[in-house]
Design goal:
The chain has about 100 residues and is mostly helical. It has three helices and no strands. The protein is about 65% helix and about 0% strand. The longest helix has about 35 residues.
Length: about 100
């Protein structure tokens, strides 16, 4: 079964963007997750524990996850086409009625 790369990448990117932004907000409000934000700061410049950092996290999370998930789905589809694999869904087994 081929994957719809655009739909998969878009849905994963939305979840990732919300998660990265929520991590910063939890760092601001509760003081939790600050170490993870500091760990990701060298990868994503401007991503820190501040409201501006939450905005950067929203953008970085969306863009990075959209690109990587889209590429992964395209590689998967390419491998299916290369191998000539056809994956079919199993037909449901009809239940016999009791008399």
């Amino acid at each position: 079964m081929k994957l719809n790369s655009l739909k998969l990448a878009l849905s994963a990117a939305i979840i990732s963007a919300i998660s990265m932004s929520a991590l910063v907000v939890s760092g601001i409000q509760l003081g939790r997750g600050v170490g993870l934000v500091r760990l990701l700061n060298p990868l994503f410049p401007g991503y820190n524990v501040s409201w501006k950092g939450a905005g950067f996290g929203l953008v970085y999370g969306f863009v990075a996850c959209f690109i990587y998930t889209g590429l992964l789905a395209e590689i998967y589809n390419g491998l299916l086409a290369f191998k000539g694999i056809k994956i079919k869904a199993k037909k449901p087994v009809a239940k016999k009625k009791k008399k």
